[in-house]
Design a protein that fits this description.
Blueprint: E1 2-5, E2 8-11, H1 21-34, E3 43-44, H2 46-52, H3 57-69, E4 73-76, E5 80-83, E6 86-87, H4 88-109, H5 115-133, H6 137-158, H7 162-171, H8 173-186, H9 190-206, H10 214-222, H11 229-235, E7 240-241
Helix pairs in contact: 1-3, 2-3, 4-7, 4-8, 4-10, 5-6, 5-9
């Protein structure tokens, strides 16, 4: 369900039974920011959001502060809050962090995964394949990117590095927004990303061949957005902060 707030449309989802008001507001606002439903620079009115979420302003304010910690909202004392512009330095830092950490995790896991863990990754890949084959373009991208995130998250969990995953995701918010924008605007080949995920699973199952350039492969896998970045920047310069 879409709800109009000022000049933006907020995509609402059902509240989970386990969520309190702060957690629900945080999740919905974060999802809307990450999928560009709330565009960079959009004004965040806590009083208006409290009405939308049928709650007091306290959990909304707490959710906004949580998003501020992830560099997704800028809070200006006495003058309100806005969805943060995409900062190039934070974008590059998120990309750097993932490109350094994930190849090392894969090296440590490669050839050592038990069959039940391999099954979880295979199931995720089947869902990825279904996602890019079915639905509208926007639905394909939304579903695929969630499964993409889950695929990599599972690898961190299998390596005993779940806290590292959450730390990486906090730093990667601007990188992830650009990836999503690239998929929408430049029609990222979801099938190619899926095939690269298949290759990652193969490496985890069988080990890494001595002549395989894992760092090069991973740099290419995480850096798909770079091909069309100039087009994005030229079309939407107001979304970015240099």
């Amino acid at each position: 369900m879409k709800i109009k707030i000022s000049e933006a449309e907020l995509m609402m989802t059902e509240k989970k039974k386990t969520e309190n008001n702060r957690e629900y507001a945080y999740r919905v606002l974060r999802d809307n920011i990450m999928t560009m439903q709330l565009l960079p620079g959009t004004t965040i009115n806590e009083g208006e959001l409290a009405e939308v979420f049928h709650t007091s302003r306290t959990p909304i304010h707490e959710a906004v502060l949580m998003l501020k910690e992830e560099s997704l909202i800028e809070v200006y004392p006495q003058s309100g809050s806005k969805v943060s512009l995409i900062q190039i330095d934070i974008l590059k830092e998120g990309y750097f962090l993932r490109s350094v950490i994930e190849p090392e995790i894969i090296r440590r896991l490669a050839g050592n995964l038990p069959s039940q863990q391999i099954g979880g990754l295979r199931e995720n890949l089947e869902q990825q394949k279904a996602a890019w084959e079915d639905g509208t373009a926007r639905e394909q991208i939304d579903t695929f990117f969630k499964l993409d995130d889950k695929f990599h998250h599972l690898i961190y969990i299998m390596s005993g590095k779940e806290m590292t995953w959450y730390a990486v995701k906090k730093v990667s918010t601007h990188y992830d927004r650009v990836r999503y924008l690239d998929a929408i605007m430049n029609h990222t080949e979801l099938e190619k990303i899926y095939e690269e995920h298949q290759k990652i699973l193969q490496l985890l199952m069988l080990g890494i061949p001595s002549d395989f350039r894992l760092d090069w492969f991973y740099d290419s896998h995480l850096g798909t957005y770079r091909k069309g970045f100039q087009r994005i920047f030229e079309k939407y310069p107001d979304y970015f902060q240099l």
